[in-house]
Design brief:
The chain contains 11 helices and 15 strands. It is of the alpha/beta class. It has 2 domains: 181 residues, Alpha-Beta Complex (Quinone Oxidoreductase, Chain A, domain 1), CATH 3.90.180; 138 residues, 3-Layer(aba) Sandwich (Rossmann fold), CATH 3.40.50. Strands 3, 4, 5, 6, 7, 14 and 15 form a 7-stranded mixed beta sheet that branches. The chain has a 6-stranded parallel beta sheet with strand order 10-9-8-11-12-13, sandwiched between helices. A two-stranded antiparallel ribbon has the order 1-2. Helix 5 links the parallel strand 9 and strand 10. The N and C termini lie close together (11 Å). Bound molecules: NADP nicotinamide-adenine-dinucleotide phosphate (NAP). The site of NADP nicotinamide-adenine-dinucleotide phosphate has 25 residues, from helix 1, helix 3 and helix 4. Keywords: NADP, Oxidoreductase. InterPro entries: ADH-like_C (IPR013149), ADH-like_N (IPR013154), ER (IPR020843), GroES-like_sf (IPR011032), NAD(P)-bd_dom_sf (IPR036291), Quinone_OxRdtase_PIG3 (IPR014189). This is NAD(P)H-quinone oxidoreductase.
């Protein structure tokens, strides 16, 4: 067992701003509270919400670490009071309330899962945020059923690449939109049945054509703006629209008549402010329904690139170009 130091390296944000506000610094290693574990971080995933938090538009919820980072994989270094399901040295991947851009991070023990069989730590670090988000929004809120039509916008994003694979695995017909032909080819490789380049094609018209004017049953959207009205028009009777972000704005002028006529459900959620108990309930379903697929390699995590922790600013610059396909990861200590 490795001794836990007093101080650790982490990424400090000197204030809201561009990627240049991020730099390596030193701070005290956090202590796990009751029900928490301390993880010696091998790698941490980079997610769009980190970019929004750094820019000042997505503040951490009360009580969360101000350090960026919503997911990490590593080994359990210490147990808080009352933790019985993990032992020091266990390999875990965890949803963290913040703080993963660091050598050590705490997380509720119930929000950690074992690293799937055969998966390396760097890949495992890219699992929790997108899998928790997709599971709770597509399958719990969106109630996607086998045989239904599913549309996910931004199919090449971390979220999109997870949603395509899980929806396909669970028996849906998957349609996605993405911003280039290269991204569309990537989405088809992941298992999408149809990928629409929204820059060269009217995606809503294509969805109407593909579904014979019926529309899709569930839409997962992070774009918002003009898409809100088009999403509503693209839903079938009893369709469900789930918004997880509004990259192009959250305001729109909407004709709500189709919501009534076609009995639509408009919903959405954010994962981060949900309680550890709510996240634990999602973790339990993932462990039962999705972990076997990750262990078998039927569902994969696609890493676009990895950066050393010290280069977090570079990782954010890449994410802001939106040139990536799949996940971006920070490597912290691959021997952890
Ligand atoms: N609600 C939640 O609980 C929750 C949790 C995690 C993430 N999210 C949200 O889900 C979204 C995806 O997250 P991620 O980490 O997977 O991000 P990501 O990999 O950076 O993907 C974002 C993608 O969205 C597409 N996009 C469309 N319109 C855009 C715009 N106006 N600005 C920027 N990108 C645009 C881009 O691809 P194209 O080239 O195809 O346009 C881009 O690659 C983010 O908005 C994030 O905030 C929500």
């Amino acid at each position: 067992m490795t001794e836990i130091p007093q101080q650790m390296r982490h990424i400090r944000a000197s204030g809201p701003g561009g990627p240049e506000v991020l730099s390596l610094d030193s701070m005290a290693v956090p202590a796990p509270g009751p029900g928490e574990i301390l993880i010696r971080v091998a790698a941490a995933g980079v997610n769009r919400p980190d970019v929004l938090q750094r820019a000042g538009s997505y503040p951490p919820p009360p009580g969360a670490s101000p350090v960026l980072g919503l997911e990490a994989a590593g080994t359990v270094a210490a147990l808080g009071e009352g933790v019985t399901q993990w032992a020091v040295g266990d390999r875990v991947t965890a949803l963290t309330p913040g703080g993963a851009y660091a050598e050590y991070v705490t997380a509720p023990a119930s929000n950690a899962l074992p690293v799937p069989d055969g998966m390396d730590m760097v890949t495992a670090a890219a699992v929790p945020e997108t899998f928790f988000t997709v599971w709770t929004n597509v399958f719990q809120r969106g109630r996607l059923q086998p045989g239904e039509w599913f549309l996910v916008h931004g199919g090449s994003s971390g979220i999109g690449s997870t949603a395509i694979q899980l929806a396909r695995q669970f028996g849906a017909t998957v349609v996605t939109t993405a911003g280039s032909d290269g991204k569309c080819a990537y989405c088809l490789d992941l298992g999408a049945h149809h990928a629409i380049n929204y820059r060269t094609e009217d995606w809503a018209a294509k969805v109407r054509e593909l579904t014979d004017k019926r529309g899709v049953d569930v839409i997962l959207d992070m774009v918002g703006g003009d898409y809100i009205a088009q999403n509503i028009r693209s839903l079938a009777v009893e369709g469900r629209l789930v918004n997880i972000a509004f990259l192009q704005g959250s305001k729109a002028e909407i004709d709500f008549t189709p919501v009534m006529i076609r009995r639509l459900t408009l919903t959405g959620s954010t994962l981060r402010p949900r309680t550890p108990e709510q996240k634990a309930a999602i973790a339990a379903e993932l462990r039962e329904r999705v972990w076997p697929l990750l262990s078998a390699g039927t569902v994969k995590v696609h890493l676009h690139s990895r950066f050393p922790l010290a280069d977090a600013a570079e990782a954010h610059r890449l994410m802001e170009t939106s040139a990536h396909m799949g996940k971006i990861v920070l490597t912290v200590d691959e021997t952890a």
